[in-house]
Each structure stands twice: as structure tokens, then as C-alpha cells.
């Protein structure tokens, strides 16, 4: 996947409350209407969501610009790629 293949879904991260042990599917393509989570809109693109299990219950910032180097977490890339 290259940055050119993804759609920017927002200019700021999404604040999300994760629940320990729950499985999440972060949208990596930017096409999902359920940002920052996958709704299957990537079908046929060759892009796949990032599936992860929350290690603990906590509030995190999930990337919506899809430029992060630490998916699914925001690394501040939205500040550099606007």
C-alpha cells in the first residue's frame, strides 16, 4: 500500500475508547463511512484493514489521515501532510 492509494478521511485523529480484549478493525484505505473503523469499503482495492486487539481499556487517538507510520495510532502525520 502506498499513501497515494488511500483516501484522507480526516485532518485530525479520532479519540476512541478501547475495551481490553476487544477486536477492532481500523480502516486503512480511508473509504469507510464508519471512520476510523472498517465497514468493508476497501473490497476490490487490494487494501486491507488493520485488525488489532486492545491490550487494555484506554482512550487512544486513531489515525484518520491514513498517513501514520504507526497504524492504527496517530503519529501526528496529519500535521505534515495537509
UniProtKB/TrEMBL annotation:
Q: Which Pfam families match?
A: zf-CDGSH
The organism's superkingdom is given as Bacteria
Against InterPro entries, the record matches this protein to: CISD, FeS-contain_CDGSH-typ, MitoNEET_CISD
Every Iron-binding zinc finger CDGSH type domain range: 11-48, 49-82
The record's annotation in SMART domains points to: ZnF_CDGSH
Q: Which UniProt keywords apply?
A: 2Fe-2S, Iron, Iron-sulfur, Metal-binding
Q: What is this protein called in UniProt?
A: CDGSH iron-sulfur domain-containing protein
Q: Which organism is it from?
A: Amphritea atlantica
Amino acid at each position: 500500500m502506498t499513501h497515494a492509494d488511500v483516501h484522507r478521511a480526516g485532518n485530525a485523529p479520532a479519540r476512541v475508547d478501547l475495551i481490553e480484549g476487544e477486536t477492532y478493525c481500523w480502516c486503512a484505505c480511508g473509504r469507510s463511512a464508519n471512520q476510523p473503523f472498517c465497514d468493508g469499503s476497501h473490497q476490490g482495492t487490494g487494501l486491507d484493514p488493520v485488525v488489532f486487539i486492545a491490550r487494555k481499556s484506554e482512550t487512544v487517538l486513531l489515525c484518520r489521515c491514513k498517513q501514520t507510520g504507526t497504524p492504527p495510532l496517530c503519529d501526528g502525520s496529519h500535521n505534515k501532510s495537509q
